[in-house]
Amino acid sequence: MKAIVLARCALLAPFVDVLNDVGAPTERMLSRFGLPAHPQQKPNDYFPLIPALQFATTAQSSQGLADLGFRAVQRMHFGHMSEQLQAAVRHAPTLFNVLEQWCRLIPIEDNLVRYWLERHDDRLRVCNSISGTAGMLHLEHTQWLQNVMMIYVIRQFAGQNWAPTTIAFEARYTPGAETQSRWPRTRFLSGQKVSWIDLPVSLLSLRNPATSAVSGPSEREFRHIGTDTVTALKMMLPSYLDERPLSIAEVAEIAGTSVRSLQRELASAGLTYSRLLDQVRFERGAELLRKTDARIIDVAFATGYADPAHFARAFRRIAGITPREFRENSPRA
Prior knowledge:
- The chain is α+β, with helices and mostly antiparallel strands.
- The protein has helices spanning 13-21, 26-32, 49-62, 68-73, 83-91, 95-105, 140-158, 177-181, 229-236, 248-255, 259-268, 273-291, 296-302, 308-319, 323-329; strands at residues 6-8, 46-48, 113-120, 123-130, 166-168, 187-189, 195-200.
- The chain has a five-stranded mixed sheet, with helices on one face. A two-stranded antiparallel ribbon has the order 1-2.
């Protein structure tokens, strides 16, 4: 079974914002492609990337929008990145240190995205690719995000007007004239082996203007997303709970596999889908009880239960205590 490619909902939210602004039936389209509703309200949850590419391509065509990926990244800013990556950028002393950390820590944002650095004479390429997507159509939507997120990082050091000499896409895609006019000093390359942007090697020693005197978080504090099926599902399913928990058939479709294959994969980990879903709902409920002051009834709805009584019984079956007792006995995060 192929790995499920995940990304943080914060990266889907700009696409939703663009479509909402033009009056598109965005929620219906998200549902059609098995994507979580209202991703802007759950930025640190995760969505499956492959259906999102199909969603973006269909939305671009049906709404008559050129370069939807570019339109989306215009809505992005440095704050769309995870707090962990923002912290890594703030505490790194030089741009080179930031680029090195980015390449190590990017699994916080996307589990199968890889970044690496390549020296080409007096220029450095920051390259990126997504495992298992070679040859897929319409990768430009995510490659805009992958390239421009790095541009936003470099601008923290080189200034807000900095732009690369080259933006290269693995996808066979050339931006429209209007989009290219926004990048007058940048050339665009299509159909490359990987996506990349370049920068002068001379910029690598730039000091960080935002470096804090306080030491940054250690790398062991950063949460990477696993690539195995069980871990990926545990990361993905919470983004759907407040709407309704997904059925195993829906999950299999999102994963691009059959129900039987998914069941076999879970069985090899000693799980059924029902048991896995119970674990996910419990862990989300425990997190909300520990970290928020949300009412028990609101926690029940947020974890996919119809009423607090059902939530309390399910929670007690796993924890051995009621949600209220769990909250009273838990140290506040």
